[in-house]
Design brief:
Elements lengths: L8 E4 L8 H10 L5 E4 L5 H5 L4 E5 L3 H10 L2 E4 L7 H8 L3 E5 L2 H6 L6 E4 L4 H13 L1 H19 L5 H15 L1
Helix pairs in contact: 1-6, 4-7
């Protein structure tokens, strides 16, 4: 069963400048209220390990990674991601996503519904999104639920529009 008490953010990916780690660090410096768990390895790992708002977990896969995604309130994708695999994994685990407004992630995310978008390379804009996410944990939880529903509707063949929306409409009719 999924834990409803989610908190903080998570970053999953290579710890390189190309992956937007520098933008993430700058955003954390601008907004000291966010706590991010970082999963991955790379040359920026030493810099991240020294940051007070970052918990470096190393490389995780499988059930360990899934458990961390289920515990996080949001996934941060600070740079252009042409594949968006992390976004799909986050959606599957009911985790909202804060991502750059470019790449495949931007096509999957509907701002305010299943995640938030920020201007590419803008640490200030990312810091604003992190501050919003920390200020409104209930909205982030709801976005995570929508993200899970989107995952099931888009990527699970047995899930249908009727399954996603039909029962809600039926229950609304029965209550009136």
């Amino acid at each position: 069963m999924r834990n409803n008490a989610r908190g903080g953010g998570i970053y999953v990916g290579p710890l390189t400048a190309e992956a937007g780690v520098g933008t993430l660090i700058e955003a954390l410096d601008l907004f000291p209220g966010a706590r991010i768990e970082v999963i991955g390895s790379g040359p920026e790992g030493v810099r991240l390990a020294q940051h007070p708002q970052v918990r470096l977990a190393g490389n995780l896969k499988g059930d360990e990674l899934q458990a961390r995604l289920e515990a996080a309130a949001y996934l941060v994708v600070p740079a252009h991601d042409p594949v968006a695999r992390q976004v799909v994994e986050a959606f599957a685990n009911g985790t909202a996503v804060i991502a750059s407004r470019t790449g495949a992630a931007a096509e999957l995310i509907e701002p305010g519904r299943n995640g938030l978008l920020f201007e590419p390379g803008s640490a200030r804009d990312l810091a604003r999104r992190l501050a919003w996410a920390e200020a409104f944990p209930e909205r982030m939880r709801q976005m995570g639920e929508c993200a899970r529903a989107d995952y099931q509707a888009r990527f699970i063949a047995a899930f249908s529009y009727r399954t996603l929306f039909g029962e809600r409409r039926r229950s609304a009719r029965l209550q009136t």
